[in-house]
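My current task is to audit a protein record that another person submitted. Alongside the sequence sits a line of tokens, each denoting a local backbone shape. Please read both lines and tell me whether the tokens look consistent with the sequence. Do not assume that whoever made the record got everything right. Thanks in advance; the entry in question is below.
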Amino acid sequence: MPHIQERDPRVDPHSSVEKLRLLGGRLCLDFANTVDPRIGPQPEEFLGSYHELVTWSRYVQVLTEEGAQDLLREATRSPRAATVTFHRAIALREVIYRVFSAIAKRSLPQTADLEELGDAFVEAMGHARLRPSAQGFQWEWVKQEQRLDRMLWPIARSAVELLTSEEVQRVRVCPGCGWVLLDMSKNGSRQWCSMEGCGSRAKMRRQYARKRRKEKGPRS
């Protein structure tokens, strides 16, 4: 797992989190894709502090605006606990990435990663209760406004639900940036995170290579 020095939100109060494209197809995959690119030089870290973790959670609607503000106030009161939670979040993110990138490459994830993900799921579901709904019954999170880690509960649940579903066979890794994504195309042909991004750049590289070959002409 990469070591991340937590950024001070006072240095750059305008987070770049909301520039992130949500292309993974599932909450857990979008969480894993908060480093861009995952492969190649100069990756940008979008979760550099607990403040940015909260901002991202609000962005993907895991937290409400009110809930996000509650957590930021609690983090101000308990900065050490917020830092611990931030590093737990990064550890969970990296486990999720390793598990699903391995599956996308048709490899078995490491046992230690599966155990860590399972432990996060068990801990998360300890904060969930079954409630009746218009459609029957559903899980609801116990309202614990002071829990600094509560944005991690639906992420862990999303990861295990995907891992234990038939859709897990549709997980792919974008060859351009290394993001993990869910291929829900009818013929299972999705390759890139987006055609406008990595797909377009790959097309331009192929066109440039063909042009260079034509310029060089046939070898004598």
Summary: The longest strand covers residues 128-133. The mean pLDDT is 87. Strands lie at 35-36, 44-45, 128-133, 136-141, 171-173, 180-182. The two ends are 51 Å apart (CA to CA).
